[in-house]
């Protein structure tokens, strides 16, 4: 059966009030961007539904793209027919016959968005179901767990037939919640935090701290690959800001007692990220912290680290177990990249006994013995910014950088 369109359901957008059209318009633009390689499609958006008219394009490839677009609750390949009972019955027969194999069961699920239609839902179910049973030998009804669920949606302009509901990515359309900076390490957690932030409509720019010669070029390449994956998921461009952090990290090692060095390192990273945020007009900072997971993620540590900025710090993973985070990383295909054995600057110079309950007054005292501000400003000035596009080859991104 050749479907001629894909019906998109909004989900959470449907709960919006007067600003619903803003979310729908943004979703339409995001769908258009994600499907830019299909020039013949046409997108129609209304207050309740969106349709992708295929116009001969490859529906299976388009379905794979739609699965990753934030703001889509679910979607269905569909056929549009006129609001005439005989046309509905004949189109339903053709659709179900194309999917039927001996032993399969079915049911009809009718829905009338337009109550002026001549038949109610029960009458539609019986009329269409009877027509199918009469014309397909061996077809049986199963209303609880059918193999084929023919969905018939009656709307004012037409009737839409489909047999499959495909889950979407959910959340809100990317870009509807503002911009934030993602502190992206080479680990498992921060890419997942970036994914969840984007799912809530946040546009993200990634910030990565690079400390040569203690961290290798392969560690940088790993983070570029993670950024590439996030760009592929969102279908949008992601900026990656690579911060030279060696001088700052060495100064911390020399000036701050070992058990407080990790706390001070996180504070300097946050200060630098906040400076980049100001330049890029971001409104928040996203981290991959999970409460109590490591010494720097205790509540006392976060309290001491947060002191250096008034910018909102968003922590999508704050209450998640590591196993839950790993499951999401596997689902979004960042887990294998994160597991590559190349150290980032968060894993070098790790103290043997880091403070799990650092005090603000103590860390301020240790940092007061040395003026870190010039090093911070120098790091900000020397940031390398890479634009990651979802449709470019990752090797080209690396060539551009080096």
UniProtKB/TrEMBL annotation:
ATP binds at residues 183-184, 208-209, 266, 288, 297. Its EC number is 2.8.1.4. The keyword ATP-binding applies. Its main location: cytoplasm. GO terms for molecular function: ATP binding; CCA tRNA nucleotidyltransferase activity; tRNA binding; tRNA-uracil-4 sulfurtransferase activity. PROSITE patterns: THUMP. It is an enzyme of class 2 (transferase). Keywords: ATP-binding, Cytoplasm, Nucleotide-binding, RNA-binding, Thiamine biosynthesis, Transferase, tRNA-binding. The keyword Nucleotide-binding applies. It holds the Pfam family THUMP. It is found in: Cytoplasm. Residues 60-165 form the THUMP domain. SUPFAM superfamilies: Adenine nucleotide alpha hydrolases-like, THUMP domain-like. It catalyses: [ThiI sulfur-carrier protein]-S-sulfanyl-L-cysteine + a uridine in tRNA + 2 reduced [2Fe-2S]-[ferredoxin] + ATP + H(+) = [ThiI sulfur-carrier protein]-L-cysteine + a 4-thiouridine in tRNA + 2 oxidized [2Fe-2S]-[ferredoxin] + AMP + diphosphate; [ThiS sulfur-carrier protein]-C-terminal Gly-Gly-AMP + S-sulfanyl-L-cysteinyl-[cysteine desulfurase] + AH2 = [ThiS sulfur-carrier protein]-C-terminal-Gly-aminoethanethioate + L-cysteinyl-[cysteine desulfurase] + A + AMP + 2 H(+). Pathway: Cofactor biosynthesis; thiamine diphosphate biosynthesis. Belongs to the ThiI family. This is Probable tRNA sulfurtransferase.
């Amino acid at each position: 059966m050749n479907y001629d369109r894909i019906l998109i359901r909004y989900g959470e957008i449907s709960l919006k009030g007067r600003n619903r059209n803003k979310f729908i318009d943004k979703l339409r633009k995001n769908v258009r961007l994600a499907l830019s390689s299909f020039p013949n499609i046409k997108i129609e958006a209304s207050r309740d539904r969106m349709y992708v008219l295929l116009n001969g394009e490859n529906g299976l490839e388009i379905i794979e793209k739609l699965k990753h677009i934030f703001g889509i609750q679910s979607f269905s390949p569909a056929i549009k027919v006129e609001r005439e009972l005989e046309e509905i019955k004949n189109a339903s027969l053709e659709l179900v016959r194309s999917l039927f194999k001996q032993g399969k069961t079915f049911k009809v699920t009718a829905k009338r968005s337009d109550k002026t239609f001549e038949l109610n839902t029960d009458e539609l179910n019986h009329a269409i179901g009877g027509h199918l049973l009469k014309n397909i030998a061996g077809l049986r009804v199963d209303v609880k767990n059918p193999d084929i669920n023919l969905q018939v949606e009656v709307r004012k302009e037409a009737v839409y037939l489909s047999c499959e509901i495909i889950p979407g990515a959910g959340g809100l359309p990317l870009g509807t919640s503002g911009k934030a900076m993602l502190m992206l390490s080479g680990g498992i957690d921060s890419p997942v935090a970036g994914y969840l932030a984007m799912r809530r409509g946040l546009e993200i720019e990634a910030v990565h701290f690079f400390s040569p010669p203690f961290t290798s070029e392969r560690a940088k390449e790993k983070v570029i690959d993670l950024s590439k994956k996030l760009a592929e998921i969102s279908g949008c461009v992601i900026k990656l800001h690579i911060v030279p952090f060696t001088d700052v990290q060495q100064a911390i090692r020399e000036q701050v007692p070992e058990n407080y060095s990790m706390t001070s390192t996180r504070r300097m990273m946050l200060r630098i990220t906040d400076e980049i945020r100001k330049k890029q007009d971001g409104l928040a900072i996203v981290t991959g912290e999970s409460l109590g997971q490591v010494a720097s993620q205790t509540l006392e540590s976060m309290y001491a680290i947060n002191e250096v900025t008034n910018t909102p710090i968003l922590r999508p993973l704050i209450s998640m177990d590591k196993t839950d985070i790993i499951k999401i990383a596997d689902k979004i295909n960042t887990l294998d990249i994160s597991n590559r054995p190349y150290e980032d600057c968060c894993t070098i110079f790790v103290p043997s006994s880091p403070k799990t309950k650092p005090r603000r007054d103590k860390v301020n005292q240790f940092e007061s013995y040395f003026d870190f501000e010039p090093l911070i400003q120098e790091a900000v000035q020397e940031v390398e910014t890479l634009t990651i596009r979802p449709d470019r080859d990752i090797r080209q991104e690396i060539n551009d950088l080096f």
